Amino acid sequence: MKTINLNKTFAAALAAIILASLVFGSLLTRMYFPQIGQIKGAGPEDPLEAWSESSVIIWQYNTTFYASRNMSTLMVMELRSNASAVINNAFGNMTAVPPQQLVVLKGNFTLDSPLIVGSYTYVDAVQAVLIMGGAITANTVQFSSGATMSEWHGGLFIGNGL
What is the total count of domains within the chain? Predict the structure, then answer.
């Protein structure tokens, strides 16, 4: 009669379960959450959780860079040091047809040129501080010629061009 050591069998089964869990968790993370963690250091400033109904979120990535994210694809559209360019490029990528699209600004933005808002764009800048550089001598926020159904809400504006 052959004796089976239950402790070794149990340990082997437990090891197999743990290994399978790690492999499954890794595959799940790669397949279903491809954008989470792609921008290193975004941490709590990454606004994904709070603004899922937005079309685009633009936020201060760190003390040097600003980022924009398309919320329908969850892809980062742009990451660069020029806040005005990031914001205006996001506005330029909006469709100028209904329905109105929501753009959320979050963080401190140092601007070197005016922001141009097109048609059917709703800007939520309640959590934004917009600091004007010396190059801005005209209106900080401008609506493009013929723009309809565009709104700007909130924001603390500091500096020139107010």
Answer: 2
Question: What global pTM score does this model have?
Answer: 0.65
Amino acid, single-letter form, for residue 86: V
Gap between the Cα atoms of 110 and 96, Å rounded: 26
Quote the strand ranges of 50-155, DSSP E: 56-60, 66-70, 75-80, 101-111, 115-117, 121-132, 141-143, 151-153
Same domain, 118 and 152: yes
Q: Which of 103, 147, 148, 144 is nearest to 125 (CA)?
A: 103
pLDDT digits (tens, 9 = 90+) for 80-137: 999 999 999 998 887 777 778 888 999 999 888 888 888 888 889 889 998 887 666 6
Q: Is residue 12 assigned to a domain?
A: yes
- Are 52 and 71 in contact by the 8 Å Cβ rule? The answer is yes
Q: Do 53 and 131 belong together in one domain?
A: yes
N residues, the chain: 162
Residue 110 in contact with residue 76, Cβ under 8 Å?
Answer: no
